[in-house]
Automatic annotation (TrEMBL):
Domain Helix-turn-helix: 20-68
Keywords: DNA-binding
Keyword DNA-binding: yes
InterPro entries hit by this protein: DNA-bd_dom_put_sf, HTH_17, PBP_domain, SinI_DNA-bd
Record NCBIfam families: excise (TIGR01764)
Protein name stated in the entry: DNA-binding protein, excisionase family
GO terms for MF: DNA binding
Residue ranges of domain PBP in the record: 116-306
Amino acid sequence: MLELYIIEEGGNSMDSEKSLTAVDVAELLKITKNTVYELVKRGELPGYKVGKKLRIDRDDVENYINNQKISKSNRNKNIILNSELTKQTYTNNVLNLENPNDIIISGQDVILDVLAEHIREKVNDMRVLRSNTGSYASLYDLYNDKISVSSVHLWDGDTDEYNTAFVRKMLPGVSCFIINLAYRNVGFYVTKGNPYKINKWKDLTKSNISMINREKGSGIRILLDEKLRLNNISKEQVNGYDIEKQSHFAVARSIARGEGNVGIGNENIANTVDGIDFIPLQEERYDLVIRESDLKYPIYKLILSTVRSEEFKKEVESLGGYDLKDIGKILAKT
């Protein structure tokens, strides 16, 4: 996901009781200036220019606050949906570390959007960017110095373990720390009521069903391929194996529309889409991967301290669906 860059006008004093600057609004709403600009750009918060200065009426800010007074569950649902919809827009974007002041955090979970926003609030001399790339490709990009930090949720069927084996294989000779973000439930997305009784991996071979798959390189695709291997199932036995979508949200929506009968994804997304049921299969571990050599730089220390902060933990908890028992812990060194 690409960050929106807008130059802030100077000053944080109010021109009048009714006209506020972006800084004033940011202080009132406890958000960043860039977030204020993004709200105005999206039309969620009315704004206008006085010369080159952005101004927002106090009444409009109060209306915005009142409109946000929705239930916690709906608010969390909107956060997830907005993140997933934005991913649809930027799926094909390719980012590269061309500027030494760029930091690119790669991965596809909304937790990373929250993390990036927390970092942006604390630094003003570098750009904090997001790359919407699956785990396998993210590790490849980290090895090739195209990104700064990778997220990963790759299950290895031979060790029955997440992430460590893949990091060792894909970053040979590179010492890395694997730092936990969360644990999530993954499982089948099925048509409401599960009419085809899809409950285990071998059920994917039923001739009367068709699946919607994830793209190569995503953690879920690798989980599927490993499970098929261990269960001696060939991809030719799975109807719809070659039908790919670029996010859990896209898979879930496809099942809800009847384009397929089963997909695989995490429980959080299943809870945001009507018309499907979620059949849990296993708990996956979702981690950050940071090169040991990078932790001497302040920005990487800031990323680590942010993940370990109570403020970040509380915001992730508010999203629901994450087990944060090991958040911020270094689980392995490769």
